[in-house]
């Protein structure tokens, strides 16, 4: 074997020699060409064409037909048209499978390497310490090991970017000697320990990011030396608070992000001289203070996130100066007073949810893009629900099933996961038509997308069981709360359905993403640094998590929170945060039935079935009998006699809803007449049953039907919204359900066990019979 290898390599060298001679237009010295060959081998780079001039911009050596984010360039610097040297190697988004080449040292003029988003493993070679590198970018690989202390010798080094890898260990104190360093980006690695004291000397720093690591200790006060700093990101880094007061001296800062500090309660850090701030994030930093007035003078602010602290007092009047901000998050504080008018008027993604603001009772949970959910006071947190439109619960609920981010699906043939396809948003409250709502806070930072999507779609082609639940999922950039209300008090089992659908499972950089987030049930942390992919053992795999929730005030809260952990730039920038596929909540107790009994015997079942059969005959009998009757004009009087829980609609309303009974809206035709789909002016989708004048359905039955169905409130039955009687027209207005839902509803019914349900069955069959007549 060695002989073949050596033969091959001598052939290779001979070939190289030959080609270098042949293309003597190549002004690159031989040793640099050879070095490139070795580098290619170590990196796993196969498309460098050594028959062509590496400095000539030929295919393989330069970016041709660039795909977004992908770059492929070897750049040379030539003097006097006689000799060239490689100064830069940029290989981005190529899934290179090798490791970092120590052979770079053989390119003595090399200033820049950029291996962003590949699949390189191994560690950073200490040999690089002898080079004159200016830019080192290794973003988004699978590098391990620590940063070699030798890098501290690269006096030219300006940019050291190693984000989204698995580097570990303590930062070498030698890095504190770098005289030209501008940027140190260490986000999303596994670094430990404290920042070396020598870092006090990094006075040339402009950009320092250390989020998502395992650092310990406090944020050192010596950062005050970094007076040129423009950007500082310390999110989910492991450091504890408080934020050192020396930060006040960093007056050039435009982008300051500190979040999820472990530590004691702290005052608001002194930022009054940071007049150029565009982005200010102090999230979950345990700040107990009123909002400082001077923030209102930071008129360049575009994003202000002070969520999840313990801020008190009112929003200062000076804050009107922030009306150019695109996003403001005050979520989860203890702010009081009235919500300023200018905020409600401008209404641009200002999230005020979960505070203690007073609000007019007329106001809903959301006004324009201002999320006010849980914002109004009234003591004992009852404000959280007082903004809900249907605060007066129509009935008690004993469960809730949501297909988060997806359409309604039925699982196991008996559980309906409700539709949850509202697009969500950075400051959004959404209330379902049943007993749940969600409150969504936060936008995805630094992504290049013009608008964020808060619903993720499965990128994998793997087939999953219950795929209906996992095709799409709801995403959050900061905090997402699902809120159940009108629940009967008691213990419930909360089942959370997760599957990682964003990352791939191949040998590409897209598989290197890490998603970590926290989950709270009833304000209790139940999952910390939860990683779906790790827990499920891969992507596109279901993982279910069960919790017991004690409901004492008819409400249930499930909160998903991004604590600054995980990668934020794989496969593209702005991919991070919680992802939830579906939620089931089922009672740990047997829901009581309408008449108080909670279980029934076989005898009762038999009785019910017999009763149903009897009723069917009775109804058919009635139908026959009804044929003999004529419609009378006393209809309206009869209707008045009923204690209807439904509304009367005008013919004009129904004509508007169905586009004057447009044939295009017709969704069915029975013996009695036609069924139309329509949309009421408030957006409610309805089905209109038009009883033709030829119909044999008589007045009395019409009245009966309305009375009977309107009294019913059962999740499996089509709801009657009301009726319309004008002139010759008899119209029934129902809740609109998708195809076959009625049949399904009828089928599911036999599993229910109460006299109330018996009543439902009877009326449903009656309905059905009407369809057949
Ligand atoms: C390599 O470069 C040579 C010289 O430019 C060219 O003739 C040849 O077609 C190239 N090979 C490939 C695979 O592109
Ligand atoms: C380049 O040419 C200039 C004069 O034309 C000469 O002074 C210089 O030494 C040359 N540099 C090299 C590296 O050959
Ligand atoms: C370093 O990277 C920056 C940004 O990509 C670039 O503008 C600069 O020219 C690079 N410096 C060198 C010496 O290659
Ligand atoms: C890097 O990956 C290659 C190929 O998968 C493997 O053979 C090698 O052991 C890995 N090296 C390290 C240091 O993990
Ligand atoms: C370092 O990177 C930044 C940002 O890409 C760039 O603007 C700057 O020019 C780089 N520094 C040097 C010395 O190349
Ligand atoms: C990070 O380091 C800790 C020990 O310091 C280790 O237990 C953990 O597995 C590492 N995490 C990763 C993702 O490498
Ligand atoms: C930086 O900070 C340290 C400790 O806080 C201090 O002793 C030193 O004088 C400061 N200045 C420089 C230029 O290092
Ligand atoms: C936060 O601090 C507490 C006590 O100070 C400690 O027990 C806990 O481990 C810390 N958590 C982290 C993530 O450092
Ligand atoms: C909320 O405001 C009400 C009335 O203004 C007050 O009684 C209550 O203590 C406040 N709650 C909190 C948590 O600040
Ligand atoms: C209901 O009770 C839970 C704890 O059982 C609490 O976290 C929540 O804030 C309460 N909600 C309301 C609206 O009172
Ligand atoms: C729904 O069906 C599944 C399997 O078909 C069964 O295990 C489960 O008990 C059923 N649930 C109810 C509430 O009937
Ligand atoms: C409800 O759950 C709590 C906590 O798990 C438990 O202490 C309590 O006994 C349960 N109550 C009932 C009625 O099961």
From TrEMBL:
Residues 1-24 form the signal peptide. The chain crosses the membrane at residues 600-625, 745-765. InterPro entries: Kinase-like_dom_sf, Leu-rich_rpt, LRR_dom_sf, LRR_Rcpt-Like_S/T_Kinase, Malectin_dom, Prot_kinase_dom, Protein_kinase_ATP_BS, Ser-Thr/Tyr_kinase_cat_dom. Its EC number is 2.7.11.1. It is a single-pass type I membrane protein. It is an enzyme of class 2 (transferase). Keywords: ATP-binding, Glycoprotein, Kinase, Leucine-rich repeat, Membrane, Nucleotide-binding, Phosphoprotein, Receptor, Repeat, Serine/threonine-protein kinase, Signal, Transferase, Transmembrane, Transmembrane helix. It catalyses: L-seryl-[protein] + ATP = O-phospho-L-seryl-[protein] + ADP + H(+); L-threonyl-[protein] + ATP = O-phospho-L-threonyl-[protein] + ADP + H(+). PANTHER family: LEUCINE-RICH REPEAT-CONTAINING PROTEIN DDB_G0281931-RELATED, PROTEIN KINASE DOMAIN-CONTAINING PROTEIN. This is non-specific serine/threonine protein kinase. It comes from Vitis vinifera (Grape). The lineage of its organism: Eukaryota, Viridiplantae, Streptophyta, Embryophyta, Tracheophyta.
């Amino acid at each position: 074997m060695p002989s073949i290898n050596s033969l091959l390599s001598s052939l290779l060298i001979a070939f190289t020699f030959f080609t270098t001679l042949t293309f003597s237009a190549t002004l690159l010295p031989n040793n640099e060409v050879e070095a490139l060959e070795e580098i290619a081998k170590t990196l796993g780079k196969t498309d460098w064409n050594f028959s062509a001039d590496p400095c000539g911009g030929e295919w393989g050596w330069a970016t041709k037909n660039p795909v977004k984010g992908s770059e492929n360039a070897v750049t040379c610097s030539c003097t006097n048209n006689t000799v060239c040297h490689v100064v830069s190697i940029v290989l981005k988004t190529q899934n290179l499978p090798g490791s970092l080449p120590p052979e770079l040292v053989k390119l003595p003029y090399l200033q820049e390497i950029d291996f962003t988003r590949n699949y390189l493993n191994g560690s950073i070679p200490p040999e690089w310490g002898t080079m004159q590198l200016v830019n080192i970018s290794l973003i988004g690989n699978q590098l391990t090991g620590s940063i070699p202390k030798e890098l501290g010798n690269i006096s030219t080094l300006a940019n050291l970017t190693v984000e989204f890898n698995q580097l570990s260990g303590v930062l070498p104190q030698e890095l504190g000697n770098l005289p030209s360093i501008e940027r140190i980006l260490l986000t999303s690695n596994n670094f430990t320990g404290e920042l070396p004291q020598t870092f006090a000397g990094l006075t040339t720093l402009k950009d320092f990011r250390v989020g998502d690591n395992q650092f310990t200790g406090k944020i050192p006060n010596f950062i005050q030396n970094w007076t040129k700093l423009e950007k500082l990101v310390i999110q989910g880094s492991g450091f504890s608070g408080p934020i050192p007061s020396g930060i006040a001296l960093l007056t050039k800062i435009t982008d300051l992000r500190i979040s999820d500090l472990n530590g004691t309660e702290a005052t608001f850090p002194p930022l009054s001289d940071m007049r150029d701030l565009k982005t200010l994030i102090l999230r979950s930093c345990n700040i107990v203070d009123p909002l400082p007035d001077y923030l209102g003078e930071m008129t360049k602010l575009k994003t202000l996130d002070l969520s999840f602290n313990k801020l008190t007092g009112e929003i200062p009047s000076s804050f009107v100066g922030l009306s150019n901000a695109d996003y403001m998050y005050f979520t989860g504080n203890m702010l009081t007073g009235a919500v300023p008018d200018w905020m409600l008027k401008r209404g641009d993604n200002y999230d005020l949810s979960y505070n203690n603001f007073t609000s007019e009772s007329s106001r809903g949970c959301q006004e324009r893009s201002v999320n006010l959910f849980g914002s109004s006071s009234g003591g004992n947190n009852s404000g959280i629900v007082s903004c809900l439109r249907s605060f007066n619960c129509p009935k008690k609920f004993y469960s809730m099933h949501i297909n988060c981010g997806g359409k309604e699906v039925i699982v196991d043939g008996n559980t309906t996961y409700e539709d949850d396809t509202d697009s969500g948003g950075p400051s959004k409250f959404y209330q379902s038509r049943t007993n749940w709502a969600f409150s969504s806070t936060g936008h995805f930072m630094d992504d290049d997308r013009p608008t964020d999507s808060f619903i993720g779609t499965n990128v994998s082609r793997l087939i999953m069981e219950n795929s209906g639940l996992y095709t799409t999922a709801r995403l959050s950039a900061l905090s997402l709360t699902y809120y159940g209300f009108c629940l009967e008090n008691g213990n419930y089992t909360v089942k959370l359905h997760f599957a990682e659908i964003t990352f791939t499972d191949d040998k590409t950089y897209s598989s290197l993403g890490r998603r970590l987030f926290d989950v709270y049930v009833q304000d209790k942390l139940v999952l910390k640094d939860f990683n779906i992919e790790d827990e499920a053992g891969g992507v596109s795999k279901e993982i279910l998590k069960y919790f017991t929730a004690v409901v004492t005030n008819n409400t249930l809260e499930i909160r998903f929170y991004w604590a600054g952990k995980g990668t934020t730039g794989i496969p593209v920038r702005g991919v991070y945060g919680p992802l939830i596929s579906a939620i089931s909540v089922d009672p740990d107790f047997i829901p009581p039935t309408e008449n108080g009994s909670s279980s029934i015997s076989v005898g009762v079942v038999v009785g019910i079935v017999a009763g149903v059969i009897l009723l069917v005959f009775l109804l058919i009998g009635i139908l026959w009998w009804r044929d003999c009757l004529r419609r009378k004009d006393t209809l309206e009087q009869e209707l008045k006699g009923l204690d209807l829980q439904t509304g009367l609609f005008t013919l004009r309303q129904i004509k508007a809803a169905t586009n004057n009974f447009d044939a295009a809206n017709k969704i069915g035709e029975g013996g009695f007449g036609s069924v139309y789909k329509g949309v009421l002016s408030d957006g409610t989708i309805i089905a209109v049953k038009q009883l033709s004048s030829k119909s044999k359905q008589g007045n009395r039955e019409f009245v009966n039907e309305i009375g009977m169905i309107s009294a019913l409130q059962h999740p499996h039955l089509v709801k009657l919204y009301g009726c319309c009687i004008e002139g010759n027209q008899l119209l029934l207005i129902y809740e609109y359900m998708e195809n076959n839902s009625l049949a399904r509803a009828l089928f599911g019914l036999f599993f229910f066990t109460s006299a109330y349900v018996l009543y439902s069955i009877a009326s449903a069959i009656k309905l059905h019979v009407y369809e057949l007549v």
